Amino acid sequence: MSFNFSSKEFYFDDPRLKMTLAGRFLVRVLSSIVYLVLLISSVVFLISQIPAARWFGILLIIFLIDYIVHRQDAVRPISQMPRDKKVNLNIFLLPKSFVLIERAYDKSSLQKTDFYFELLKQLLEVKNIRNGLKRLDVDAESFRQKTEEILKSTQGKEINPKESLNEVQALAAESFNRAIENSSQSIRPQELFSALANLKDANLIRVFSLFSVDPGDLERALIFDSISRKVLGWQSLPATIGGFVIGPTRARHRIMNRAWTSRPTPNLDQYSTDFTDLARRGESGFLIGHQDEYSRLIDAISRPINPNAILIGDPSIGKEALISHLAYQIANDQVPQTIFDKRLVGIIIADLVAGANSEDLQSRMQKIVREISLAGNIILYIPEIHNLLKTSGEAYLSAADALMPIIQNNAFPVIGTTYAREFKEYIEPRTDFLDVFEVIRVAEISPVDAEKLLVYESLLLERETKVIISFKAIKESVELAQKYLHEKFLPASAEELLRDALMDAKRSGEKVLTADKVIEITEAKTKIPIHQFTALEAGELLNLENIIHERLIDQEEAVKAVSQAIREYRSGLAKKGGPIASFLFVGPTGVGKTELSKILAKIQFGSEDLMIRFDMSEYQDKQSFYRFIGSPDGNISGALTEAVMQKPYSLVLLDEFEKAFPDILNLFLQVLDDGRLTDNFDRVVDFQNTIIIATSNAHSDIINESLRSGESMDQIAGYLKTKLVDVFKPELLNRFSKIIIFKELSLDDVSKITDLNLGDLADLAEQQGITLSFAPEVAKKIAQLGYDPAFGARPLRQVINEKLRSLLSDKILKGEVQKGAKVKVVLSGEDFQFVPEA
What we know:
The strands form six sheets. Strands 3-5-6-7-4-8 form a six-stranded mixed β-sheet, with helices on both faces. It is an alpha/beta fold. β14 and β15 form a beta hairpin. It is built from 37 helices and 20 strands.
């Protein structure tokens, strides 16, 4: 629903609430007596021998039947808003909603208790609200007991009638807002419940928070109950989610419009699907979200000049749902006059071109176009319209050539759908084609809309699997899919996750799908720790520095900084809106900057494979900038954006960051600030689940010169940070979580690193069934050979490869060292020897 309320003044007034308790009781009694008298009178008049009396009796019966049918309805639905400037919200209240308010008002007055909590207690006895709470995994009885406990604490409250009426006024206003949000036609008990949760009352906020009840969650959970009651009544669940539409079904295929001016279209029917037929049969038309896109679509195809639109969006994002909804609205006469009573027909290009050469295709297209023009009541829908413009086959060119003149002549509305990449590649370069279309980009629906859509989907899944789906499982699916599963967009990503969790629950024999199962499946799919950390994990997090130091020597400042970042993230206290953390590692080469990044990737993300590494020295010009984020024409995909979309939960390592093209450095102002980047296909790439580490050797000459002069790294660090503005803009430096200066490595540090690397070599040998050990002097000699103050520990790996690894591999190939052997490496003069060990 969409109304303009800016010119309205809303208030709530009901004379019954201004009466005394006795007065309200008397009104109820008199009302019952009046209807009883009318019933008796109608019977008396019906059996009368006087014709006029009998007719009067019939009129009374009709009046009473109408009263019985509509006695549970509001005086007026919200869609029939009065024209008056002042509108009494009382006319939108369902009678049962008013009864709940009246009863709570009376009890509050009699017992001198809080009105809101009296109403909350009444609402917790309403069956569908209890069912909604059950879907939220909330114990309604515990909720009621806590409500009564707080209610008793308010007893003896001084009741001011005027203040009480003000409370009712505030409740009615908020309930009306909730009804508008829910697209409800009246103020129902669930709107009263949600309104209570939104009122700025400290006690109400406390009780709702205690049970983690979000009013929006309850409203969406209540969809389960409302649909279930319809199924138990006169409706049945549809076969697909597209069938969740309200209205009579008319299965008849209708060629003619109501004015009988249209013509049959046998050739078109052979290669197409009539979406208005599907809508009349109740098989499609359901739409949640995408209201802006739908409004633009209606505006585009309703105009007299260029009544054409192209919907651009990724697969399963909702393009065809918009088409189906348009067909449903046409079938129900809820469209502008210009497209009233038309048929929405989708052409199937694969069928059209199947088995046809160029001449056959031209002939088919000409017949179809002629039929559409003569019929005068067709809106043509072309899925994947880029296929008409592909240059890979003569048939495609012929189809486009046959259709283009008709599109340009505004003969009938045309709607096409395409994807961002194909739009860039095939459609955007054809300005003659593009100029006659309104370009509408179909965005991902909101998480709230995705939750609502999955509630309807869950009703079908429950019927199929016989497993109850809690609303928290739905909510968790949406949250986790949006956060971690970026291969698809909402709602498709969340639906896939929900289905996987549901199938796993069914295989396990579980009767209810909970949020924990969704978390478990997400962790299995992404290898990401999502669950609430255990005591063991908490211990590891608190001991993270020591765990890192098992693989990294010294660099205390860096280790402490990254450890704290991981703890903040896992405890839920990380900064919202940006990456998990971002660091600039500065220091001479070979001191552990890349090694710490690898260790961090393994600890936080589970594997070194989840480190996305870029050598920024390869991105120093404009062309490389396009390789990094994608070219404007869409021909080149962005290395960074594609990698992060494939691995949204990862560590991004930017080696030699200072060498990057200036536009790339400016790009990271946005990435480090809000954790998002729009690629060349207008897709938003999310960096909020990444750790970004940039390394730099900037001013390494200053570091080396200062070290040679005897200064310590602590003395150098402060000065170096001030000098970094010569290389990076201050606004870029300020966006990093922390700038860390890495110390030079001493010979003692290199000796410890040598022990780690020799241990790695021994582990590799163990995998080949060989036990390898080292004499103490071997490690000392390797450390001496591998130590270079200018290059840190970088030469060490080469020394181990040349002196030990290559020698051992030769001996294995010659058969001198075999599986099961125990070998010790010793130093003989300047040579390393492998000798058998007993």
